[in-house]
């Protein structure tokens, strides 16, 4: 009887898993960002997106990415992990694909595109600049001059612009083999009097993440402020015309995250900054970090350093950057939840098993075996206790039958 009941229960549970898993996973664990374009007859065309048309939210017509990229002079970016370019107009890093990651598991699937220039589908870019008063500053339409042809791990590039009033602005860029760009913003003052400038860095994206936030994972605005990761700000919290959400912090980082990808501004970890998120018309969202204002005397120069991360949230790589650069809570770019102390060791063990076995299914089986072996002493005590109870069962039944009308005597 019990065996039949267990069999029926097993069949019901199997059916629930088989038919209910897709609905549950789509609701609470959404898939990675779907592609926004495809190639037809050698041309890149837009794919229809849920809730979107071929025009931006503000009515702006989305243009072909290849055409937009060809309209401005550019510096190519080439690393083993990234491929793209930066625009000399506005000094924007606005063209980037991740070479080690594909949109789907198909053999001919294109690499994941993370950054795209303004005016195209899913516009997403980063830039560096200055604010100030009484000095002519570079802006989004400024045409910079480059020293260097390609930005690679072996060949840094320096962008420069002379305002014609005695000040020269420079952005020196270098990149590693993975996803980290180092930027040094430098101002040289050849004028007759001191100037005050404030360096900043920003990330701008159009549209919310297609990987929606859920109770298992946070997507959207993200950062670490004063030693604590912040998952509390969502796109819906940012309103056009509002001051946005601001943080005064020393160190940390700020940016946007999708389920698997991250863009983040990482200022000098010993510098006090003003950072935050804001919204603009057309579903445009911005994460920015402003460094302290600097007085640059006549005949002097001042420089400020920061980093820009553009890439995949690979656990080992995030941990390495956190250790090497001293980035506060950079590993928390992955929303581990409350049990990070337990989840990360399990992840590292599973990842190691996968590397050894070469098959993820085998790795899961091996992980299950290891966990069962670790839990064996506890399970053994449970089995022994159950065996003792089974041995006492006949005697207990005998007592219950003998004193069935006397509950107190049964207990004695």
What is the strand and helix layout of this fold?
Layout: H1 2-28, E1 37-40, E2 43-46, H2 65-70, E3 74-78, E4 82-87, E5 92-102, E6 111-115, E7 124-133, E8 145-147, E9 150-151, E10 157-162, E11 167-175, E12 180-189, E13 195-206, E14 220-225, E15 228-230, E16 245-250, E17 253-257, E18 261-267, E19 272-280, E20 284-290, E21 294-296, E22 301-312, H3 315-325, H4 340-357, H5 360-374, H6 376-402, H7 407-411
Parallel strand pairs: 3-9
Antiparallel strand pairs: 1-2, 3-4, 4-5, 5-6, 5-7, 7-13, 8-10, 10-11, 11-12, 12-22, 13-20, 13-21, 14-15, 14-17, 16-19, 17-18, 18-22, 19-20
Helix pairs in contact: 4-5
Kindly summarize this structure in a few lines:
This protein has three domains: 1-30; 71-335, Distorted Sandwich (Beta-galactosidase, Chain A, domain 5); 376-411.
Characterization of this structure:
The chain has helices at 2-28, 65-70, 315-325, 340-357, 360-374, 376-402, 407-411; strands spanning 37-40, 43-46, 74-78, 82-87, 92-102, 111-115, 124-133, 145-147, 150-151, 157-162, 167-175, 180-189, 195-206, 220-225, 228-230, 245-250, 253-257, 261-267, 272-280, 284-290, 294-296, 301-312. The chain has 412 residues and is of the alpha+beta class. It has three domains: 1-30; 71-335, Beta-galactosidase, Chain A, domain 5; 376-411. The strands form three sheets. Strands 3, 4, 5, 6, 7, 9, 13, 16, 19, 20 and 21 form an eleven-stranded mixed beta sheet that branches. The protein has a nine-stranded antiparallel beta sheet with strand order 8-10-11-12-22-18-17-14-15, with no helix packed on it. A hairpin with a 2-residue loop joins strand 1 and strand 2 (43-46). The model is unreliable at 24-54 (pLDDT under 50).
């Amino acid at each position: 009887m019990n065996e039949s009941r267990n069999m029926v229960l097993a069949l019901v549970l199997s059916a629930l898993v088989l038919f209910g898993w897709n609905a549950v996973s789509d609701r609470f664990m959404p898939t990675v960002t779907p592609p926004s374009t495809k190639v037809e007859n050698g041309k890149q065309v837009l794919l229809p997106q849920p809730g979107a048309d071929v025009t931006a939210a503000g009515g702006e017509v989305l243009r072909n990415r290849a055409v937009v990229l060809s309209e401005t002079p550019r510096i190519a970016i080439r690393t083993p992990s990234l491929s793209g370019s930066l625009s000399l107009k506005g000094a924007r890093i606005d063209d980037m694909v991740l070479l080690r990651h594909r949109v789907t598991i198909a053999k001919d699937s294109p690499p994941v595109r993370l950054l795209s220039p303004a005016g195209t589908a899913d516009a997403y870019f980063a830039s560096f600049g200055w604010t100030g008063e009484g000095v002519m500053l570079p802006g989004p339409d400024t045409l910079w001059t480059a020293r260097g042809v390609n930005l690679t791990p072996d060949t840094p590039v320096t962008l420069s612009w002379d305002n014609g009033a005695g000040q020269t602005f420079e952005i020196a860029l270098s990149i590693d083999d993975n996803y980290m760009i180092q930027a040094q913003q430098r101002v040289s003052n050849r004028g007759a009097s001191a100037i005050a400038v404030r360096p900043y860095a920003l990330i701008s994206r159009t549209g919310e993440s297609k990987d929606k936030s859920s109770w298992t994972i946070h997507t959207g605005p993200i950062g670490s402020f004063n030693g604590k990761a912040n998952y509390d700000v969502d796109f819906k919290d940012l309103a056009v015309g509002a001051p946005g959400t601001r943080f005064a912090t020393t160190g940390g980082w700020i940016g946007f995250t999708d389920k698997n990808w991250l863009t983040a501004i990482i200022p000098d970890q010993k510098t006090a900054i003003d950072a935050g998120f804001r919204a603009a018309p057309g579903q445009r969202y911005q994460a920015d970090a402003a460094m302290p204002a600097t007085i640059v005397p006549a005949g002097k120069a001042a420089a400020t350093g920061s980093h820009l991360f553009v890439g995949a949230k690979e656990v080992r790589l995030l941990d390495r950057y956190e250790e090497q650069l001293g980035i506060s809570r950079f590993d928390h770019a992955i929303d581990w939840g409350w049990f990070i102390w337990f989840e990360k060791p399990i992840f590292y063990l599973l990842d190691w098993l996968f590397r050894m076995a070469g098959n993820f299914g085998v790795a899961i089986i091996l992980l299950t075996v290891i966990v069962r072996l670790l839990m064996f002493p506890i399970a053994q005590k449970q089995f022994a206790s159950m065996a003792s109870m089974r041995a006492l069962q006949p005697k207990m039944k005998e007592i219950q039958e003998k004193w069935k009308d006397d509950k107190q005597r049964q207990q004695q």
